[in-house]
Amino acid sequence: MNYIDYSEIFRIYSKWDVPDEVILHMFRVAELVRKLLLRIVGNEEKLDLLIKAALLHDVGKALVKREILNKPGKLTTEEFEEMKRHVEFTVQILLEEKIDHRIIGYVQRHHERNNGSGYPNGLTKLSKLDEILAICDIYDAVTSNRPYRNKLSQKEAAEIIYDKKNAFDINFSKLLFDYLNEDEIYKTQCSVSWIFIKMLIITFTLMLVWNII
Ligand SMILES: [Fe+2]
Predict the structure, then answer these.
(1) Which of 14, 91, 96, 124 is most buried as measured by Cβ atoms within 10 A of its Cβ?
(2) From ligand 1's centre to the CA of 72, what distance in Å?
(3) Cβ partners under 8 Å of residue 19, min gap 6
């Protein structure tokens, strides 16, 4: 894998005063993108480009008014239009920072949907990598606490993503939820193993205390 220059990423966060919650969201999305891409993409350069796009895709939120970004209630139509401009602001920032044009392309399309319902351009055909970034973004957004709502469960998130008719290729939605289900099984197996190890330690300790061994 090529080297992702995290110092460059953090320099951009710091220079543009990107809010902490936005940075955390971008890191979670990047991690999810990395895990999904490792399953389907053989091209390591594309993998790094998309991870970098994930790490930068919302930096333009730094230029959205904080009272809109942190509003604890539903946004008005005008406020939502202003919020949507974060894509345009992100592109401006990344152009100024001379980021690779392919990364800027992924970032510019992260709110587009296959059925034309997305923004800013209402595109109707996304690439495989565009869809992965968009799905990971929406998954993390709905499963995180926001000022205007509590986080949703994985099941509720699945329903939202599957319900977005023709917005995403069903295969990519499946890729995400297959991964999450396997990860859940892995975590359960780890916790079961850990309980078993703890029981063994307690048993041996008690046997020692009681001079059985
Ligand atoms: Fe966004």
Answers:
(1) 91
(2) 18
(3) 61, 62, 66, 69
Report how far ligand 1's centroid is from the alpha carbon of 152 (Å).
18
Whole-model pTM: value is 0.82
DSSP line for 126-192: --HHHHHHHHHHHHHHHTS-BTTBPPPPHHHHHHHHHHSTTTS-HHHHHHHHHHHHHHHHHHHHHHH
Task: State pLDDT tens for residues 131-166.
Answer: 999 999 999 999 998 877 889 998 888 888 877 768
Give 52 Cα–ligand 1 centroid separation in angstroms: 14
Q: Please, what is the average pLDDT of the chain?
A: 87
Ligand 1 centroid to 87 CA: how many Å?
Answer: 6
86 Cα to the center of ligand 1, angstroms: 7
Distance between Cα 61 and ligand 1 center (Å): 8
Question: What is the largest distance, in Å, between two alpha-carbon atoms of the chain?
Answer: 75
Per-residue pLDDT tens for 54-70?
Answer: 999 999 999 999 999 99
Q: Which domains does the chain have, with CATH numbers?
A: 6-209 (1.10.3210.10)
